[in-house]
DNA sequence: TTAGGGTTAG
């Protein structure tokens, strides 16, 4: 095209965003700002939707939010829900709450966005409370709503509430979508009701790959490795199946939990037959499989050979296996890797001390304890809380008898200041009811 | 002619 107008710019930005080409969409938006065409609400919705997940897109999202405020687009519910979604996916649920609370008109999609924002950031209780409020406010739930609510029930293992939502699904949705089916299977599996999950699975005639994977994973996480493998093999021979990385993660998890070492290796190698290149998660499964079954050297070799840097969880599960098999040398190496990654995290110090203690290496145990003292690492002694009002003034401290409570109180003055400066509360510290949890 | 929300993973 020789000339681009507002609509053609918006169309290409929207197209790129929908295709998951977020970076390109943002880049195109910047080009547009330099052109003669000015973005409108539709353009902002498209470009904001392109900001997902990664840290740099949080900055992009904040910048776009500033544009929106300046241009007065913040009363458009499409724009608001795209911003809520963006903040939720960047792990900033509090920012999403602020937007939701400010909105004057709350339609179904806005509620859905906020419920999803809570659920995604593991605020299951808040997600359920908002769902109840939504019902009281006569905003009618859609199957998007119910999917998110089921997710929250699963993550809180609330079987009773999950069943109630299932009843609502039956009542409100004449035709169950694959989204709802997989969310229900997932909810029942996570609540330990694997029989209900299987019943639903068998009852569903139109199954897609996610439905299959959810069921396989349900078995894997319930420790029913053989059932998981059986189902996977049925899925494998099915015409038109779409075996992907997640499905392989599910089957590898099953092997892992059931101790099927040879099967696990076989499935890992099979990925290539389907044109899939193993990603970090599949390597993690295989490494854990080796380590859990005592093949610690093999696991270590694989960690060094694989084309990814081992992450915290990999080293951590490896350290656990070193503890199980009394492997001091490898355990020490894993622990020191973990100290580098999260020096404040007591778990790895304690684990290394345990490994030393089991081996009777008491001098080394003392050294670890000293190291902890030097770095000011404390073993967590549970949780306390501090209640705050809207202005973040403290009005009660949870366990006032605990010697650490006073420190929390003092720390809060500083924290309040920093939070206000930053304009939001950190995820770990924020509870929408006005209670801040602190680790003692 | 351009716009928002949902399922599965170590």
Keywords:
repeat, DNA-binding, 68% helix, 440 residues, PPR_rpt, mainly alpha, TPR-like_helical_dom_sf, E_motif, 3 strands
Polypeptide structure, described:
- The longest helix is centred in the last third of the chain and has 20 residues, at 403-422.
- The chain has helices at 6-18, 22-34, 41-49, 55-71, 77-89, 93-102, 108-120, 124-136, 143-155, 159-172, 178-190, 194-203, 209-221, 225-236, 245-258, 261-270, 280-292, 296-305, 312-324, 328-341, 346-358, 362-375, 403-422, and strands spanning 383-388, 394-397, 435-439.
- The protein starts with 5 loop residues before the first helix and ends with a strand.
- Helix 6 packs antiparallel against helix 7 (108-120) and helix 14 packs antiparallel against helix 15 (245-258).
- The chain has a 3-stranded antiparallel sheet with strand order 2-1-3, covered by helices on one side.
- Among the domains are: 298-380, Serine Threonine Protein Phosphatase 5, Tetratricopeptide repeat (Alpha Horseshoe), CATH 1.25.40; 386-439, no CATH class.
- The chain is mainly alpha-helical.
- Residues 399-403 and 422-434 have low confidence and may be disordered.
- It is built from 23 helices and 3 strands.
- A hairpin with a 5-residue loop joins strand 1 (383-388) and strand 2.
- The structure holds one DNA strand of 10 nucleotides.
- Keywords: Repeat.
- One of its GO terms (molecular function) is RNA binding.
- PPR repeats lie at residues 5-39, 107-141, 244-278, 345-379.
- This is Pentatricopeptide repeat-containing protein.
